[in-house]
Every structure is written in C-alpha cells, then in structure tokens.
Amino acid sequence: MAIKKPRGTQDFLPEQIVNWHYIEQCMRDICKAYGFSEIRTPAFEDTKLFLRGIGETTDVVSKEMYTFSTGDDKEQSYTLRPENTASAVRAYLENKVYGKENLTKWFYMGSMFRHDKPQAGRYREFHQFGAEVLGSSSPVVDSEVICMIVQLLKDFGLKDLNVEVNSVGCPNCRPTYRQKLIEFFEPKKDQLCPDCQSRLYKNPLRLLDCKNETCKALSVGAPEIHEHLCEECNTHFEELKTLLDAADIQYNLNPRLVRGLDYYTKTAFEVQYTPLGAQSAVAGGGRYDGLVEELDGPHTPAIGFAMGMERLLLALEKQNLLPEPAIEPAVFIVSLGDAAKLEAFKICNTLRSAYVRAEMDGQGKSMKAQLKYANKIHAKYVIIMGDDELANQEAIIRFMETSEQETVPLTSVSERISSLVKG
Ligand code: HAM
C-alpha cells in the first residue's frame, strides 16, 4: 500500500503556495500598519501549558490534543500546539517581556493541530494567523483588534461578513451566571446530549452553543449573560460597542457566543463568512485578562484573535478573489552539443548570480523540445546556441513575445539579458 498523508492534513503544491504567499504578505502588511511584530514559538509545548491555559474541560484539551512522550524523556508529556495563545503567553513570561515593555503586540502564523473529525474547512493540521495584545484593559484595544480583522477581510474583497460580539463576563460575575444556567438546565438534564450532560456542572456556558437540535430547543429561554454582567464588564462592553460604531463596523450581538476555550473574559467575538457552510468561522478571539496570572505571571490584561488561513483561502477561492499569479520573467538557454551546453551552463550561472531566473536543458532534449519547454515556463527571452553560433562566438536572443531575434557576442550575452530583464 502506498503511503498516504495523514487524514485531515493537506499538501500544498506550488500553484497553491502562490496564494499562501499572497495572503501572508497582506497579513504582514496589515500587522505593520497596526503595530504588531512577529513571533514564532515551538510547534509543541509542555502538555501542562494547554491543560492550565486552555482548560481541561474544553473539547480542544479533553478530546483533540496530539500528546506524546518520547525517547529518554518518558516522564515528560508534550503536545502539538492546538492554538497559539497559550504559547504566546508562555513566551511572554519565559522571556520576561512584561518587564521590558508595558504594551506588547505580537502576531504569528503557523500550523496548529487538533484531532477533530475532518470535513470541508476543518483539518487536523491547519494554519492560523493570529495576534495578541498584552498589557491593556482598555476596550480601545478590543475594537482595534476587531477593526484589523474586518479591514483585512474587506481588503481581500470579502463582503457580507458576519461579526458576532458578546461579553462572557469575568470571575466576579460569571459564577452567578453559571449557577443560573445550571438551575435552568438541571430539570432538563436527561434530555441533553451526552456532551452537554457532562458539561452541565463543569462548563455550563458551553450548553448555549451546542449544535445538537434537541439541546438547541431546550436552551430556548435560557438566562442571558447580559442580565448578569457586573458593572465593570457592562461598562467595558458598552464602550466597545460605541467604539465599533465609531469605526463603522457592522456587528451582531450574540449572547450565545461563548467560544470553546476557557481563558476568555469580557469580550468574545467571531467573524463568520456564511458561504463557507458548517465551518463558517473565519476568525475568533476575545479578551483573556486572567491567563497570564493563571500561568504564574503578573496580572496582565490581554486580548487577541486567530484566523483560519485555510478557511480564508476557501472563501477567497469561492469568490474568485485570488489574484492571477504574476509570471516571473524567465530566460531559457537552448543549446545543442556538449560545447554549447558548457557555454549555456556558464551563462546560466552568471545570470543566476545576478538573480535572473535562468534555465537550461538538463534532460538531453531536442532543440524543438527545449523551445517547447521555454514556452511552457513563459520564458520571455530565449538564448539559442547551436554549432554555427558557437563557431562564431555568438548567441541568438529571441524575444518570445514578438519573435524578433538579435545576435550578440557570446561575451556580452549575460549582460544584455540582465539589462533586458531588469529594465
Ligand atoms: P479558535 O476559535 O479555536 O480560537 O480558532 C480560531 C480560528 O482558527 C477559527 O475561527 C477557525 O477559522 C480556525 N480553526 C480552528 N480549528 C480549525 C480546524 N480544525 N481546521 C481549520 N481551521 C480551524 C483560537 O485558537 C484562539 N487561540 C484565538 C485567540 C487568540 N483568542 C485570543 N487570542
């Protein structure tokens, strides 16, 4: 049996990589405008980071982590990162960044791993572009982060985005709300799906976004968090809404948006692109004012988001919003015979040292086949060297767009081509 890639993973071939480069460049550009600097953290971390950071009762931690120990390090458990916020906070603490600056704005791109059921838009290895702001409790930062996502998606040309916003409260007001939810659902416990039954006492907020139809019906009339927010959370949420209005961001208030990770406090949001179907969440995030302390750091309010890069590409593909790949001007050197090949090789090297894309035949093709290949790679210029040209120490340059030709001395062919290519 031929070896296949693991289920839920993907190969990206060169024709797809151009699209990845395109979105990555746009992401880097917008991060520059908003003042975010890039970080890169390990693809695997100490398992405890995610247990404590994301929460043991979340689906991500309880069902979806790739965890292993290996070699002579059998006591140590590692986990492929299922997300990057916990890692960013770990790096923030381990590198004592909090002591060096009082506001930290980071972004990242990379692979994440979750052992979920693969389907369109949901993979076991996927890529996130995310950003984190550490050190501010102001709703101005919340709105900046949301504005950045919306601007990026709009600049890609996506229309009809659905921005959902909620407040999930804080350790002051959430316990009362949790209790209200438990009281609401307890009498219906037996009718809930097995997941919700086990979540009822551990994480009752998650019952609000269960996709099971019976659970959905049973949750009609459940108490809403907005009625239970403390003064501080309420003021924060009101200010955020005012700022989003001022930035002309269209959003929907969704009191059932609870998100799947335990670290959220106050603001939670998701940006959906409904034509994607079941996996329509292109980006999600929120405030996590307690996470740095949870990981033994100083009190540091923070907020961030992550965007699924595969989902973004699916959306752009669907709407035909990916640009045509640019054709790099290439030079192909057609040569016949050993002496001509040697000269072609030297010219190739000279051009490549000047970063001109130059290619020659390496498969013993006929003159006709070499010209055909030159066309295939969209060569703008073809250098032709046959026996006659070589005898005269000359080469022919063919301009492929016009089929015009010029004969130049062998010694100046590289220089002539370089000046043509570089304009
Ligand atoms: P998340 O909602 O779990 O949040 O993931 C963010 C985005 O990653 C999702 O909206 C989705 O686009 C994409 N995504 C998640 N799982 C998959 C999957 N299996 N296949 C494809 N795409 C997926 C977080 O990860 C938080 N760390 C976001 C955050 C940053 N909150 C604060 N700071």
* Portion in beta strands: 15-25%
CATH superfamily of the largest domain: Bira Bifunctional Protein, Domain 2
Major sheet: 8 strands, mixed
Number of domains: 2
Helix content: 25-40%
CATH architecture verdict of the largest domain: 2-Layer Sandwich
- Here the CATH topology of the largest domain equals BirA Bifunctional Protein, domain 2
Counting DSSP E segments of at least 2 residues, the number of strands comes to 16
**Which assembly state applies to the chains in this document?**
single chain
Unreliable parts:
none
Helical element count? 15
Q: Could you say which small molecules are bound to this protein? A: histidyl-adenosine monophosphate
Overall 3D shape: elongated
Family: Belongs to the class-II aminoacyl-tRNA synthetase family.
Binding site for L-histidine: 83-85, 114, 128, 132, 259, 263-264
Subcellular location: Cytoplasm
EC number: 6.1.1.21
